[in-house]
Design a protein that fits this description.
Elements (H helix, E strand, L loop, with lengths): L2 E3 L5 E3 L3 E2 L5 H14 L3 E3 L7 H10 L8 E6 L6 H15 L6 E4 L6 H13 L6 E4 L3 H10 L6 E5 L7 H8 L4 E5 L13 H10 L3 H11 L3 E2 L6 H8 L8 H8 L14 H9 L3
Parallel strand pairs: 3-4, 4-5, 5-6, 6-7, 7-8, 8-9, 9-10
Antiparallel strand pairs: 1-2
Helix pairs in contact: 1-2, 1-9, 2-3, 3-4, 7-8
Keywords: NADP, Oxidoreductase
InterPro entries: AKR, Aldo/ket_reductase_CS, NAD(P)_OxRdtase_dom_sf, NADP_OxRdtase_dom
Protein name: Aldo/keto reductase
Length: 280
């Protein structure tokens, strides 16, 4: 497994397993399957309501805790120093762990400065090995990064072949911050799985569209966390280290970028209201 070194020296697998939209009932089984396939990085969040499933799986899997890398995120309803501090301890309880490898602010709303102070405190106390943010656009990312004590190690954002986050990656390089992709398959939108460019490149290597898309992001030093509830797909998504895309392949895929979201915009007031009220 290839790893990336975060800006505090911690190493993180560049490929992990995400549990967004995995039901609480299925989560333990899915995470257990992912670990059996070889995944060592698992991404969850308070708002996914499946941290306990992750905790059950990692406590039973037989893999030493220090060989696993667990990410979770503080939701908007827990924003602010006091609420965030309490929620971090609750996440630790649900995850059945003494520490979280990577803790992120899930959305840039509410008192996220207070949230980040609680996260910095947890980091200093050894409850968290690395901290960062999620869904922070370049403007808010720079604002936080310039005024916090501990520079974010990661910014998890929508990143796929149709929205490649070129500008954001350039900005974050100034701070040593890594992009972590959510939605690396664009959830199938924009005819992702039948894209001609990805299909043709895949044929050259005997690889699927999904594998080509993951490989593209990995070669751009972007952390990926594909999700599937099917073990055979988990295996497919994991097998992306036995081939490499050429510069011509990379250039062809770069042409697919529209630099636009396929999901939602934080500049849309109605979407912001929806996010604030989600999972209350």
């Amino acid at each position: 497994m290839e790893k990336v070194k975060l800006n505090n020296g911690i190493e993180m697998p560049i490929l992990g397993y995400g549990v967004y939209q995995v039901t609480p009932e299925e989560c333990e089984r899915c995470v257990s399957d992912a670990i059996s396939v070889g995944y060592r990085s698992i991404d969850t969040a308070q708002a996914y309501h499946n941290e306990e499933g992750v905790g059950n799986a990692i406590s039973k899997c037989g893999v030493p805790r220090d060989e696993l890398f667990i990410t979770t995120k503080v939701w908007i309803s827990n924003a602010g120093y006091d609420k965030a501090k309490a929620s971090i301890d609750e996440s630790l309880r649900k995850l059945k762990s003494d520490y979280i490898d990577l803790l992120l602010i899930h959305q840039p709303f509410g008192d996220y400065y207070g949230t980040y102070r609680a996260m910095e405190e947890a980091y200093k106390a050894g409850k968290v090995r690395a901290i960062g943010v999620s869904n922070f656009y370049p403007d808010r990312f720079v604002d936080l990064a310039e005024f916090c004590e501990i520079t974010p190690a990661v910014n998890q954002v929508e990143t796929h072949v149709f929205n490649q986050q070129i500008k954001l990656q350039e900005v974050m390089k100034e701070y040593g911050t890594k992009i972590m992709s959510w939605g690396p398959f664009a959830e199938g939108r924009n005819d992702f799985f039948t894209n001609t460019t990805l299909q043709e490149i895949g044929k050259e290597y005997g690889k699927s569209v999904a594998q080509v898309a993951l490989r593209y992001l990995i070669q751009r030093d972007i952390i990926v966390i594909p999700k599937s509830t099917h073990k055979e797909r988990m295996i497919e998504n994991f097998n992306v280290f036995d081939f490499a895309l050429t510069p011509d392949d990379m250039a062809a895929i770069a042409e697919l970028d529209t630099a636009k979201t396929l999901f939602f915009s934080h500049y849309d007031p109605e979407m912001v209201k929806w996010l604030i009220n989600y999972s209350k």
